[in-house]
Amino acid sequence: MTEKQPFDLVATEGTIEVRRYPEHVVAETEVSADFEDAGNRAFRFLFGYISGDNTAQQSIDMTSPVVQAKSQRVAMTAPVVQTGAGGNYTVAFVLPASFDEASAPLPTRSEVSLRTVPARLVAAMRFTGRWSKSSFDKHVTRLLSGVTDAGLTTIGEPWFARFDPPLTPSFLRHNEVLVEVAENPTK
Fold first, then answer.
1. Which residue, among 96, 28, 29, has the nearest Cα to 60 in the 3D structure?
2. pLDDT in tens, 42-73
3. Nearest C-alpha neighbor of 133 from the set 158, 98, 163
4. Which PANTHER family does its entry note (predicted)?
5. What 8-state DSSP symbol labels residue 172?
6. FRET pair for 74, CA 20 to 30 Å: which of 30, 113, 146, 159?
7. What are phi and psi of 75, to 5 degrees?
8. Between the CA atoms of 88, 64, 159 and 24, what dihedral angle is there, to the nearest 10 degrees?
């Protein structure tokens, strides 16, 4: 079984779940590609890191999801976002919960870096299907509508999470779109 990123379910609001994610560490890389190719281009760097291409030459268990977001050249505390077509995407593997940034082995490739993502409140929507830009856009529209209907306020831009290996038939794939939301609803 692949370890999944933990979260606490705070509420279900129509078609969305409101979740509280704890602080966690990701190994990430930035690639220049369109939406569909970004994950493939990033995979070899990230898989290399968890396969031992790190200072400890340590294998790290694969976890899910793999997250993908449109890169933004802004302050490190800003959320990673995904919008637009093509460009630079940040793709990240969530490290097992047993790691913090100090205990995770350092990457040996300059393309991979570690980052601590602070605890946050997130609205999420699950869906099945292909990992395509059009599917992402369609589900983001639904997610943001659900967030508005629930009286929540977004922080930053949505991102994409995929949970299954590429060989999984698209109709069986577990995917999600997510967006950070403010602690205090607008209702």
1. 96
2. 999 999 999 999 999 999 998 889 999 988 64
3. 158
4. HEME-BINDING PROTEIN 2, HEME-BINDING PROTEIN-RELATED
5. G
6. 146
7. -55, 150
8. -90
CA distance 100 to 153: 29
All structural domains of the chain, each given as residue ranges with its CATH number in brackets, are 3-181 (3.20.80.10)
The pLDDT value given to residue 1? 62
Report, in this order, helix, strand and coil percent for the chain, each rounded to 5: 20, 35, 45
pLDDT at 143 over 60: yes
Question: Measured between alpha carbons, how far is 76 from 13 in angstroms, rounded to an integer?
Answer: 30
Per-residue model confidence (pLDDT) at position 165? 82
d(CA 158, CA 143): 9
Tokens 């704890």 -> residue: 22
* Contact in structure between 90 and 68 (CB atoms under 8 Å): yes
Give all strands of the β-sheet with 113-117 in edge-to-edge order.
Answer: 8-13, 16-21, 120-127, 175-181, 154-162, 66-70, 88-94, 24-32, 113-117
- Using only C-alpha atoms, the chain has a radius of gyration, in whole angstroms, of 16
Q: How many CB atoms lie within 10 A of CB 106?
A: 12
DSSP H/E element including 140: helix 133-149
Provide the 10 A C-beta neighbour count for residue 130: 13
